[in-house]
């Protein structure tokens, strides 16, 4: 595996290690193209900032710190600066502006919450049998794909829907179809594999195989060691083979500064 564009930093307050350690570990694993994609900074209208994001007042420093290392390591590895960001219908334009203004190059989409997150949002990681929740999740991911702003969709299958399998299949297939139509890859998330989460969800990836959606891998590293997680790469490769996924390798970065 020569690329990984899904990496966090300590700034989101739930990851550890320095950027330098992540970079060194990536080089050790043979990664040639790497991207940092910490949780996008945002301040809600009442001043609230989510606990798990890069704080607004650290955003420029985040980009600058990575830029410095990018130059230092340029002979060994190509480093890019991005964010992992949700698609919140109410705040998308503003979040995109913030990401652009602080100098990020690319975005991956990760829909961690639904209903605009705050103040009345819902985590997409808790069990839900509500079809409304599922529909909202699918709407957000679909909108992100159509926006043309995202390099790929991280863990498109993170929603923990416990309702009818038929409804799940009918709704989630829409993401697979759009991914193919708009050529926006879906990420097999290696954090999900390494920590035994509800994703990768085989029901979802069977549909992705049928629809021939483009597929990429992402380490989703929250510590330096997992900036190259060899065991999970092997497991992800097995899934690709077993399910017949359309694995495309390195995704083409969409430069948000040119949008
Ligand atoms: Zn995520
Ligand atoms: Zn992540």
Protein described:
- This protein has a single domain, classed as TIM Barrel (Alpha-Beta Barrel), CATH 3.20.20.140.
- It is an alpha/beta fold and 259 residues long.
- 47% of the residues are buried.
- It is 38% helix and 15% strand.
- The strands form three sheets. It has a five-stranded parallel beta sheet.
- The radius of gyration is 17 Å and the shape is globular.
- It binds zinc ion (2 copies).
- One zinc ion is lined by residues 84, 110, 112, 154-155.
Fourth-level CATH superfamily? Metal-dependent hydrolases
Number of helices: 8
**What compounds sit in this structure?**
zinc ion
User: Main sheet?
Assistant: 5 strands, parallel
* Strand ordering within the main sheet: 1-2-3-4-7
What are the segments in which pLDDT stays under 50 over at least 5 consecutive residues?
none
Q: For this structure, what is the CATH class?
A: Alpha Beta
What's the mean pLDDT score?
98
Proportion in β-strands = 5-15%
**Separation of termini?**
29 Å
Q: Based on the coordinates given, report the CATH architecture.
A: Alpha-Beta Barrel
* Structure class: alpha/beta
Q: Give the % helix.
A: 25-40%
How many β-strands, per DSSP?
10
Radius of gyration: 17 Å
* Spatial shape: globular
**Topology pattern, helix = H, strand = E:** EHEHEHEEEHEHEHHEHE
CATH topology: TIM Barrel
The tally of domains stands at 1
